[in-house]
Amino acid sequence: MTSSPITALPLTPARVGSPPPPVTDGEHGGLLDALAKVPDPRDPRGIRYPLSALLMVAVCAVLAGASSFAAISDWLRDLDGHARDRLGLDRIPSATAIWRVLTRLDADLLAAVLGGWLTTRARRSPPVRPDRYRHVIAVDGKTLRGARLDGGRQVHLLSALDTDTGIVLAQVTVDVKSNEIPVFAPLLDAVHTVMGSLQGVVFVADALHTQAGHAQQVAARGAHLMTAVKGNQPTLSAQLKSLPWPDIPVGNRTRDRGHGRRETRTVKAVTSRTPGGIAFPHAEQAVRITRSRTTNAKSTRETAYFAVSLPAGDALPAELQGWIRREWLIENQVHHVRDVTFREDSHQARTGTGPAVIATLRNTAIGWHRTNGDTNIARALRRANRRSHDLITAVTSSYPTTQ
After folding, report:
1. Number of domains in the chain
2. DSSP sequence for 115-175
3. Are 122 and 309 in contact, with CB atoms under 8 Å apart?
4. CA atoms of 270 and 242, how far apart (whole Å)
5. Which of its termini does the chain have fewer beta carbons within 10 Å around, N or C?
6. Is the pLDDT score of 235 beyond 50?
7. What is the pTM of this model?
């Protein structure tokens, strides 16, 4: 091998700690208990319907497939009297009353409350290698294309997905005059509130979040960051591209085929011994992944670079490849489902925090059904709609009962 300022990663495993202990039955809570933490934006004088009951209706309706505020009201009206009593309503509120409350809520707080509630109920599969377990959180943003605010401005949300359970732990609203970068720290705080600790957690994100401030904020919370490196960080990008990759042995290679496509992904990872190390705060490794794809006799090749704050012994190439692929889950398992199943881009919510609130309810529905073992969310929504009493029983139970 030629002389190089880098060393290839060793392939010896290192213990990184056991997974967090499972939540005990005594820590489970029903939905009403969780919703009691959401502050009521209404004037206390003249309140006719408890906020927790209205929120319970909204959550259950979206779990049963309601895709708009009007559909939430319709779902409630279709229930029998006994079902409405179980939801805490002795009479039916108007569609306008429900809409007025939901569009005035603190959407970011509601997302954290519902993310925490789902997390306490989720059944986690035991890791295959407990000594190599790491909690991986994917961060990604989404524009609600149909929702418009004053002046035609669009609503943009930044979310954090627990890639183990499929639960959106937190979601924050991006200021219409800004971008995702300033709300990254508030998102970390919201995830910390839900999880209780970020120690050892790995956050994976796209190139927009390859920011020095983000790396420092993640490290300050005892967590780790893995981000793509592109042209928005020209110095770092040039450094990673200039490394002698041909001299570095392949750390991991996977091959997949299906749907008429063959794909090979090759990972190389190195640590840097150049003065000052990798030109990014807390970065311990540089990673290159090469994707070769053949579809209908047409071949393409793509190379991507990443920086990760975990040292070689704590993040082997096979693990790095797995974490990179998990970053896609928030797009494939959440955003795509919201667009296709809930037709989110066609929903023209315009008032107050309504667009973010309804997006949070959709996240909750997707996470709920995934934690119950459903992979076809559309089918799960239809089943929940047919079995409304079972659904109400499940969400009000203090145990993770499926419906």
Report:
1. 1
2. HHHHHHH--PPPPS-GGG---EEEEEEEEEEEEE-GGGPEEEEEEEEETTTTEEEEEEEEP
3. no
4. 13
5. N
6. yes
7. 0.87
Residue pair 75/324 in contact by the 8 Å Cβ criterion:
no
Half-sphere exposure of 361 (CA within 13 A, CB side): 32
Closest CA to 345 of 108, 148, 60: 148
Q: Which two tokens stand for residue 314?
A: 């704590």
Position 1 in a domain: no
CB 389 within 8 A of CB 83: yes
The Cα–Cα gap between 111 and 127 comes to 27
Residues 164 and 136: beta-carbon distance below 8 Å: yes
CATH of the domain at 232: 3.90.350.10
| Residue 401 within a domain | no
Residue closest to 237 by CA, chosen among 209, 267, 215, 207: 207
- The C-alpha atoms of residue 307 and residue 228 are separated, in whole angstroms, by 7
Residue 128 sits in which domain range?
6-396
Query: Which of these, 103, 124, 86, lies nearest to 41 by C-alpha position?
Result: 103
At 109-148, the pLDDT tens digits run 999 999 999 998 887 666 666 666 889 999 999 998 877 7
Asked if 272 and 284 count as a contact pair (C-beta separation under 8 A), the reply is no
In a domain, 268, yes or no: yes
316, burial (CB in 10 Å: exposed 0-12, middle 13-18, buried 19+): buried
